[in-house]
Amino acid sequence: MIRLADGKSAKELDIKAQEMGIPGEVLMERAALSAAEIIREKCLRAGLKSAKILAVCGTGNNGGDGIACARMLYEWGFETDILIAGKEDKLSELSKRQIEIVKNCRISCEITDADSICEKINKNKFDIIIDGIFGVGFRGGIEKESPCGRLVEAINDSDGFTVSLDMPSGVDADSGRVKGAAVRADMTVTFGVGKVGIYIYPGKGYAGEIKVCDIGFPKAAADETLFPAIAFENKDLAALLPPRKDYSNKGDFGKVFIVGGSEDMCGAAYLSALAAYRYGAGLVKIFTPSTNKQALQSLIPEAVLISYEDGREELSERTREVLEDQIKNWANVVVLGPGLGRCGRSEAAVRTVLEAVNALEKSIPLIIDADGLYLFKKCEELSRGRKFDLMEDGKKARDIVLTPHIKELSELLDREVSEVKEDITALARELGESEYTVVIKEAATIVAGGGSKEFYVNVSGNSAMAKAGSGDVLTGIIAANFAARNVNSFVNTAAAVFFHGLAGDAAKERLGEQAVLARDIAEADIRIHREKSIENNHSLRRKD
């Protein structure tokens, strides 16, 4: 598991380490050494034993990291220039110390203005450009027409392989926001722990390949630091998806009940059912209109079908009774919404499900997706007799998982889409107070709430998954996780999101980024998935 820091927790970790007796100079030297070793390895693998390297540094401690990194590369035989953008009286104490060291080592180091550095970048060819302008403490934005903005654009326009230290300059470590200009790195070497802002968009799009380097923070300091987020990595897969016990039967792996599929929309229910089976559920039933019966029996004969013939604007008393009985006496997990539609009959089904789940003496997980989210909001008075409000405190009575994309989330929260997208991490922190577990489906999906103080940032997956039905597959995986491996709402849901992304990565590897369909994601074998790396690519040139 990866712990992800924001600016506050990164500073807190640094302070705790120093309080434990590790000087700031030592941490800076370790950070610089880790980055220098990675850059050296890149150069040697590319056959550039005498690479020309430029370190562009700011006046803060991030600049000190850059100065020290360049010094080490110089001592290893690389041609290195160090340019510091700013004024001498703005230098941090650690940066002053690094400048003193490089001068004692007779290494060229110049404090100058941003425009002069731009001119040097434009007139010279550098194999590597080290970005040490701003680090995790950066807030606000860089105006594109400002001297600093022009410097950032000069770095971006150069042919050199750009390595950002800790954060790409211009990217907010807390939120990943970019206001104005930001360095588009080919690689970001971040120190101690990952930073939230380079694992979510838009910041992730500026970070390039991410390397998290151990620089000697004590474990005790990390354990005492309150990090806002976590992420899973491939080595967590064995614990999150353990082998099935030999002595078992289908009942041991749970019963998933899917309420979904309106006329001409049975595909969503099928994909959710397929994914639930593929990810371990023992039994799956689909509650759907009779017009879907033949298609679903053909597509997924393993699933049990309960069909009804009610009109689009009503749900008969008999059908309600059947629906209530399945929830009361059969289901371990209920999925509400895939392909359900928004007609009167669908609204009646949602009301019936909510009433039945709320009436149960013991909790069963309820996963709400797609049209189910819209109708859940409409049926807000059924949410334990109070107005539906994700921000409202309340005693947790049910495992309820909501899986909205950004537009659906804006509707749930009665906010504009632009407001929701402005700072996803701030919203995730708010949702941490929610009794619901909320999956914010984005290019980098976030899971929040469910009683967890941290939010989860997903690092698996790719753009090949941006296809109709992908979300229905995710819903089925979440359901299977509750049915077959019930731990707690937050962990089950975050693990399912991780599996979904790994499956997308495996499907892309097999089919390419254009051809992947939602069912390919459901059927991909994530256990044979291997972490992708660009280490075998010896080119140091930007591939824009």
Word description of this protein:
Helix 14 (371-378) links the parallel strand 15 (366-368) and strand 16. The protein has helices spanning 7-19, 24-45, 61-75, 93-104, 114-123, 147-157, 203-207, 219-223, 237-240, 266-278, 293-299, 317-329, 344-359, 371-378, 406-413, 417-422, 424-431, 470-484, 489-511, 518-523, and strands at residues 2-5, 52-57, 79-85, 109-112, 128-132, 161-165, 187-191, 194-195, 209-213, 229-231, 255-259, 283-289, 304-308, 333-336, 366-368, 400-402, 437-440, 446-449, 455-457. The longest helix has 23 residues, at 489-511. Helix 2 (24-45) packs across helix 3 and helix 13 (344-359) crosses helix 14 (371-378). The strands form two sheets. A twelve-stranded mixed beta sheet has the order 8-1-10-19-18-17-16-15-14-11-12-13, with helices on both faces. With 544 residues, it is of the alpha/beta class. The model is unreliable at 384-397 and 530-544 (pLDDT under 50).
